[in-house]
């Protein structure tokens, strides 16, 4: 976890004020402008890491396609898992920044009806009712019919896959992004609430007589195209946050008032905490006992996705981000700014975020235990009291920190924050 930037206690500031000129203390004060500028720096570093990890994933996929073996398939899977670490931390920038929210669906849309992409086992295949795309199987068919429209998909290209997202008006029709790649690498998870993830054979990527499940050439082309598209999309987003670049989103954000910048930061943190992570990603899956609503459902990596979402929220509050190379980006933070207005609330929010990370870590540790690991899809099984307790405890801490984020907004002069709760009652 990134180191939390130490903050001088308020009492220390008061004591020092008797010995130091007022102007010197004012010069040391953290400003809203500095906090918003550092927020943009954090975004740039985070997306740059996500891009670097996606480029490694793309290389491992190229190696898999050049030489399909159990070893190269496993290397591609490991690269995918690594790529999720920075990307999930970046989701805190999605809410409040329309440039990210409008773009994010092409990279991280879920749940998806995987039968739109490739073969599925019919008896255990859960999908959106009435969705023609759920069984379109682009890999097996050069023409598909969805929503009464027949489409030519003979050429599988990054541009074609981008155009196919949400065809027929269904959000479950997802052709690109991390989860499309995840499905192609792991295949369906047919274990339900039992231990085990997807078990796609490497022979699905082999050619000639070694090919299994047919259409291996198109499956190989699809995997190559979708991984290229992921890199292209992340390159675009890195450019949106790059310093000294004319006309990008960073310049647009920094041209806004400091209060608007703080609003976007706090809204993003609160909405990811409440409506998205506590609600859509945890509460929905638990209450419905639905492993189809598990975020990384093919790889059983959901515990890490949740953990790094929580880490992303804490990153913004503390102004720190630990990069994949181990270096730490740090600077003026919301925590510092809030401490100048209300040290008690700043400490409370810091403690609540630590509590949230402890609860998310408990889920992570249970899923990765050497003896009897319990993945997220096992935790949400009917009657699993231990799993239910782990998830509910994390939900409660996320709700608590969201309440304090709303109070923090008031202390910082940001009115009518109203984080997105996605319609959930907590």
UniProtKB/TrEMBL annotation:
Coiled-coil regions listed: none
Record's keyword annotation contains DNA damage: no
Cellular component terms (Gene Ontology): cell envelope
Keyword line: Signal
Protein localization: Cell envelope
Keyword Chaperone in record: no
Main location: other
Signal sequence extent: 1-26
Superkingdom of origin organism: Bacteria
Domain annotation Imelysin-like: ranges: 43-404
InterPro entries: Imelysin-like, Imelysin_sf
Name by which UniProt lists this protein: Imelysin. Metallo peptidase. MEROPS family M75
């Amino acid at each position: 976890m990134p180191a939390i930037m130490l903050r001088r206690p308020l009492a220390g500031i008061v004591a020092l004020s008797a010995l130091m000129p007022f102007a010197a203390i004012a010069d040391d004060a953290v400003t809203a402008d500095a906090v918003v500028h550092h927020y943009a720096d954090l975004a740039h570093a985070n997306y740059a890491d996500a891009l670097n990890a996606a480029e490694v994933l793309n290389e491992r996929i190229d190696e898999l396609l050049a030489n399909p073996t159990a070893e190269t398939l496993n290397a591609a899977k490991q690269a995918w898992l690594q790529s999720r670490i920075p990307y999930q931390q970046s989701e805190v920038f999605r809410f409040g920044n329309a440039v990210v929210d409008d773009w994010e669906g092409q990279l991280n849309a879920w749940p998806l009806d995987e039968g739109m992409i490739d073969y599925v086992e019919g008896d255990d295949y859960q999908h959106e009712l009435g969705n023609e795309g759920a069984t379109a199987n682009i890999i097996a068919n050069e023409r598909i019919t969805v929503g009464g429209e027949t489409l030519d998909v003979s050429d599988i290209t990054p541009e074609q896959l981008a155009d196919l997202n949400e065809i027929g008006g269904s959000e479950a029709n997802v052709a690109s992004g991390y989860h499309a790649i995840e499905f192609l690498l792991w295949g369906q998870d047919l274990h339900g609430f039992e231990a085990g993830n997807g078990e796609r054979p490497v022979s699905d990527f082999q050619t000639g007589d070694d090919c299994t499940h047919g259409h291996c050439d198109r499956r190989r082309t699809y995997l190559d195209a979708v991984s290229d598209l992921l890199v292209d999309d992340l390159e675009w987003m890195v450019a949106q946050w790059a310093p000294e670049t004319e006309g990008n989103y960073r310049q647009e954000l920094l041209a806004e008032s400091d209060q608007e910048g703080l609003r976007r930061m706090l809204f993003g943190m609160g909405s990811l905490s409440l409506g998205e992570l506590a609600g859509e990603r945890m509460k929905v899956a638990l209450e419905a006992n639905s492993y189809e609503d598990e975020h990384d459902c093919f790889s059983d990596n959901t515990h890490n996705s949740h953990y790094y979402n929580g880490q992303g929220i804490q990153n913004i509050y503390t102004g720190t981000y630990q990069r994949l190379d181990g270096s730490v980006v740090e600077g003026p933070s919301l925590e510092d700014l809030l401490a100048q207005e209300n040290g008690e609330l700043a400490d409370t929010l810091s403690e609540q975020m630590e509590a949230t990370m402890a609860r998310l870590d408990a889920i992570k540790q249970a899923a990765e235990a050497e003896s009897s690991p319990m993945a997220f899809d096992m935790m949400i099984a009917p009657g699993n009291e231990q799993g239910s307790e782990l998830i509910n405890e994390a939900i409660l801490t996320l709700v608590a920190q969201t309440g304090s984020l709303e109070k923090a907004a008031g202390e910082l002069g940001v009115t009518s924050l109203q984080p997105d709760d996605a319609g959930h009652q907590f």
